[in-house]
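FW: tagging you since you asked about this chain on Friday. Here's the raw sequence from the shared folder, copied in full. Didn't touch anything.
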Amino acid sequence: MRAIISAGGTGGHIYPALAIINKIKEMEPDSEFLYIGTHNRMEKDIIPEKGIPFKSIEIYGFNKKNLFKNFKTVKCLFKAFSDAKKMIKEFNPDIVIGVGGYVTVPVIVSAKKLGYKTFLHEQNSLPGKSNKFLIKYSDLIGASFPSSLDLLPKDKTILTGNPCSEDALKKKEASKKDLGLSDNKKLVLIVMGSLGAGRVSNYMKEELPLFEGKDYEVLFITGKGSYDKVMENKYPSNVKILPFYEGLPSIMKKTDLMVTRAGASTLSEIIALKVPSIIIPSPFVANNHQYINALDLVKKDAGVMIEEKDLKKGILIKKIDELINDDNKLNEMKNNLSKLQVKDSAYIIYKNLKGLVDGKDK
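HL: got it, structure written out here
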């Protein structure tokens, strides 16, 4: 299979794109890829490091605060369509795949107008602006959450789940000992994203000392942007702190309770690995989509949510104590998470891509 894949801006788009690439490679080792991303976001470093051919497009989101900057945005957008069209014609793919981010707009639109098959993947419960715009230019759409099915065209949308979930299951378990943790104590994992979350990290500086004397351990992964600030204080011996950990599902497999944001990929891993969680959605994302993501778990009693505005001293540790010491509740959450699982997500996507390439209906 020859595939162009486009996704940009955040890990929430990039890592599902990589999971799709990995599955295609697994099923068809001779496949060839071209990844089209933005020129100044994280994919420009991540993708070439993986040995995947990469080309970039200069493109920006529209600026709501400074309208004058949008003149450059519009100028770049016209060039982006021209560049995307040229890249697609030169590579001549069997299929073009969009996995989120505004860079996908010129790629998918150009591909459709040139007569190529197109596939979109939506990671969030609430479809993003780019994907909403691209619906009419797509031959097939993959949804991660059942709730998305009511917001997307029924005649060309399938429930695929998030392909990151399949990658998570393949990860080898981490060693608690290597992390300075005990095998015979329960583990609470607290993660606030690769760059951290300023307000939550400040809150955690005040909350972490309250874990003194607890019979469970806490691993707080601050994010690189918050680590130095968090480490200004001293904490109890049962609290371990890291700035970042590559391959988080490895630790999640050893986790009894997780405290996390509500990014789509993280929630897909929580569902796949059946990790009970306390979810603190970021309120600073487009259309409050993390809150909507979290509701998919909360409504099924598969997770507990605390909104960031409600984080007062002692609230989080009270909820952690309540859950970590209630094995019946933890098991109930695990059982409910299993009901949300979409097994073999990456394979489902591959199978439907193959169907499009071969001219078969979904």
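FW: The two ends are 18 Å apart (CA to CA).
HL: agreed, and The chain has a mean pLDDT of 93.
FW: great, closing this out.
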